[in-house]
Amino acid sequence: MSMNFTNPVSEEMAARIAEEFGQPVVTDRKTFLFDNMKQIEGRLMKQIANEAKQPVTVEMHGEGEIKTMSDGTRYQVTPQGWKKLDPQ
After folding, report:
1. Does 17 map to a domain?
2. 33: in domain
3. How many structural domains are present in the chain?
4. What is the pLDDT along the chain (88 residues), one digit of tens a residue?
5. CB 3 within 8 A of CB 16
6. In this structure, is residue 10 part of a structural domain?
7. How far apart are CA 2 and CA 62, in angstroms?
8. Beta-strand (E) ranges in 1-88?
9. How much is the pTM?
10. Is 74 exposed, middle or buried (0-12, 13-18, 19+ CB in 10 A)?
11. Which domain holds residue 49?
12. CA 64 to chain centre
């Protein structure tokens, strides 16, 4: 799963996300990649979006899907979770 924002969130918001949903595998404070994410509640997601003052989207990813971070680093979903891909 990934949680995505349009703009990077504050360090405080990143800490709150980790507290509420568990530690992400990797984050650039704009995209948060999770191997195991706690249950998502609409009320909590609304609070996160309001506090971050921007929309937030949550995506489900299947094996083989690739997500690119803002610095260009790519991660792919494997049966064991997100795996960093070698640079191209």
Report:
1. yes
2. yes
3. 1
4. 999 999 999 999 999 999 999 999 999 999 999 998 778 889 999 999 999 999 999 999 999 999 999 999 999 999 999 999 987 6
5. no
6. yes
7. 11
8. 2-5, 26-27, 31-33, 56-59, 66-68, 74-78, 81-84
9. 0.92
10. middle
11. 2-62
12. 17
